[in-house]
Design goal:
Blueprint (H helix, E strand, L loop, with lengths): L2 H7 L15 E4 L2 E4 L2 E2 L5 E2 L2 E2 L1 H23 L5 E11 L7 H21 L3 E7 L8 E9 L2
Parallel strand pairs: 4-5, 6-7
Antiparallel strand pairs: 1-2, 2-8, 3-8, 6-8
Amino acid sequence: MTPQQKAESLGIKFEKQTPGYLNLCARIGKQLLSSGHVSTLKGKLGDGLSTEQGYQAARDCAAKILQSVWNAHGTLDGLRVVKVLGCVNSAPAFIEQHLVINGASDLFHEVFGKETDGYHARSALGFASLPTGVAVEVEAIFEIKE
């Protein structure tokens, strides 16, 4: 199964996006750089939100990134995930940012392969707040292999 087929089998819907204020996915040479994509879930991890809720929020961000990548490239096929940055709206004592951002990494592993094109470098960071109070924000860099 190709990455595009795998994403569709996971229920990710691909529709043309209307360009907005910022470019959600910019192409630079053989790379696609996504903007930060935010979760629908709002709140603070470790203060009302659980790690599992954060995990699902990060997965939501990754699905939104895949939609933007599809809009910029026309397919998910022929891509490799290079780098992921995950930002977690965290209470001061919350230390499970890496487990939250696993939600994004796991989706990329499922779509592109855990030990092949989905194997990526990553940072998972905690922040005192994120724009509009969202729980998670994720951005990613992809290589165009073709």
